[in-house]
From TrEMBL:
The keyword DNA repair does not apply. Residues 70-189 form the Glycosyltransferase subfamily 4-like N-terminal domain. Keywords: Transferase. SUPFAM superfamilies: UDP-Glycosyltransferase/glycogen phosphorylase (SSF53756). The keyword Cytoplasm does not apply. The lineage of its organism: Bacteria, Pseudomonadati, Bacteroidota, Cytophagia, Cytophagales. Coiled coil: none annotated. It comes from Sediminitomix flava. Transmembrane segments: none annotated. This is Glycosyltransferase involved in cell wall biosynthesis. GO terms for molecular function: glycosyltransferase activity.
């Protein structure tokens, strides 16, 4: 079998490394898959030379730009190029990562009839509308909404990242037989808690061993909380006082400093900035709990934040808003954190009593939740089912 795997991000981007590479490795492990052609969209006009170290894999970078004209061109010139490739190479199946990549899959399928599957299928157009990134009359929104409808109608299989969105698709009338949930999984070994990192990072940052450390990895604004996040951080400092320490791993350092001033958050009890992706697990190990800060909206039932899986793999309870994919429900049912309630002003008291006095052994037991819900074994089992492997 020959497979064309389409991503809509650059091959070196974090989302590709975290979500596409592991799935390429799983595909490569199946005996009857002979060739995998991986398409990435590179937007900086540079040659991409990567040693993937994945058998059977051939990388096909396509080069584009960042303007609206470039994005529209993605769906005219690229499909034509890929249609010729699919026909020349006699591709058997097309796998697309995300709804924008699924649009390319649909356009190729329309001309070739080669079956295509969309992983991480999501209401992407609605995400962007609700976040204020696109308006209802933006050509990007109109086209993406149209292509998502076509994917629902013509894709051989849809793999949303949450059961909540799977149920929504079934309610829309899509056959349950063609929908299979694959959450955003993580490398459990990479993000496993390490006591030596707990000690070394706290020593490096001059954090006492009895401090309560909260961590947030990500951005602010758009689809994430912004001012609400810093109001939450302020409540954290008010509850724990001098014992509180906050680690924020983000590129928005200047924004953080502005809000620290506005909310009188003591900067000497914070660490803000970017670190190498390989160092993120060390900072998680130094922490006691994590913040998950996606802004709730109707379309958020369709997401599976990869950071939540990383937090859980490290044994961290999380504070999360309600209505975020399956994760808010999992937090409640598995008792692995606290769900934010605007009427609940004792969130840190609840967190303190329920989780922060846990031993390392109890922290390890919490990481088992990551194995249950976010292990790549979950992805592999769905692959076997969907692709008949």
């Amino acid at each position: 079998m020959k497979v064309l795997f389409i991503g809509y991000w650059g091959a070196k981007e974090g989302l590709s490394v975290a979500t596409i590479y592991p799935h390429l490795r799983i595909l490569s492990s199946f005996e009857h898959i002979k060739e995998i052609y991986y398409v990435s969209i590179e937007r900086d006009n540079i040659d991409v030379n990567i040693n993937f170290n994945i058998p059977k894999l051939i990388h096909l970078p396509l080069y584009s730009g960042h303007t609206l004209k470039d994005k529209l061109k993605d769906f005219t010139s690229f499909p034509a190029e890929l249609i010729r490739f699919v026909q020349t190479k006699s591709i058997d199946k097309i796998i697309c990562r995300g709804a924008p990549a699924g649009a390319l899959g649909y356009l190729i399928h329309k001309k070739t009839t080669v079956p295509y599957y969309v992983e991480s299928f999501e209401p992407h157009a609605d995400y962007m509308l609700e976040a204020g990134v696109w308006s209802k009359w933006n050509p990007k929104y109109i086209l993406e909404k149209y292509w998502e409808k076509k994917q629902k109608d013509t894709a051989k299989g849809l793999m949303p990242v949450s059961n909540a969105y799977k149920n929504h698709l079934v309610e829309e009338g899509i056959s349950m037989d063609k929908i299979h949930t694959i959450p955003c999984c993580v490398d459990l070994d990479t993000f496993n808690y390490k006591h030596e990192d707990h000690i070394s990072i706290r020593s490096q940052l001059n954090i006492s061993m009895d401090s309560v450390v909260g961590v947030y990895v990500g951005k602010f604004g758009g689809i994430y909380y912004e001012e609400e996040a810093f109001q939450l951080f302020k409540a954290f400092f008010e509850y724990y006082q001098e014992r509180a320490y906050l680690i924020i791993l983000t590129p928005q350092e200047e924004l953080c400093q502005e809000y620290f001033t506005q909310y009188s958050i003591p900067t000497e009890q914070t660490k803000v900035g970017l670190v190498e992706h390989s160092d993120v697990p060390k900072y998680l190990s130094a922490s006691n709990f994590a913040f998950s800060l996606h802004k709730p909206s109707p379309s958020k039932i369709g997401i599976s934040p990869i950071k939540n899986g990383e937090y859980w793999a490290n044994g961290l309870p999380i504070i999360i808003p309600d209505g975020i994919g399956d994760d808010s429900r999992i937090v409640r049912e598995e008792k692995i954190g606290c769900v934010l309630d605007t009427k609940n002003h004792s969130i840190f008291e609840d967190l303190d009593h329920s989780f922060l006095n846990r031993s390392n052994q109890q922290r390890s037991s919490l990481s088992l939740v990551a194995k249950k819900y976010r292990s790549f074994e979950v992805s592999e089992e769905v692959y076997k089912l969907v692709y008949g492997m």
